[in-house]
């Protein structure tokens, strides 16, 4: 599956969303302003190797931030090292509990 990488107009902090995109972050007033990246951080549950341009290779245990969710089940992710790209949502631990547990166990 191949997706285009979102342009700068999608990656800016304050933006109007096109119907085919759903932001990972929603403000309470519906303005879709990204203000708390910690809220959409996830752990990768299964490794995925990028197979085409625009996809992101992720490894089990990587911490990623979701920037966009596509209706087809692919998420536009950012790794802690700044790499961005599309990966299947099914490879990401969507419970967020694993990330919370990991942060407490490191203390």
UniProtKB/TrEMBL annotation:
InterPro entries reported for this sequence: SH3-like_dom_sf, SH3_domain
Keywords tagged on the record: SH3 domain
Residue ranges of domain SH3 in the record: 37-97
Protein's UniProt name: SH3 domain-containing protein
Pfam families membership: SH3_1
Native species: Oikopleura dioica
């Amino acid at each position: 599956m191949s997706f285009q990488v979102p342009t700068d107009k999608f990656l800016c902090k304050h933006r109007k969303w096109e119907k085919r995109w759903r932001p990972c972050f929603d403000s309470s007033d519906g303005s879709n302003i990204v203000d708390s990246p910690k809220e959409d951080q996830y752990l990768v549950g299964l490794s995925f190797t990028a197979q085409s341009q625009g996809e992101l290779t992720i490894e089990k245990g990587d911490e990623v931030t979701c920037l966009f969710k596509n209706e087809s089940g692919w998420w536009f992710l950012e790794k802690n090292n700044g790499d961005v790209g599309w990966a299947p949502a099914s490879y990401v631990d969507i419970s967020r509990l694993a990330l919370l547990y990991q942060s407490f166990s490191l203390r």
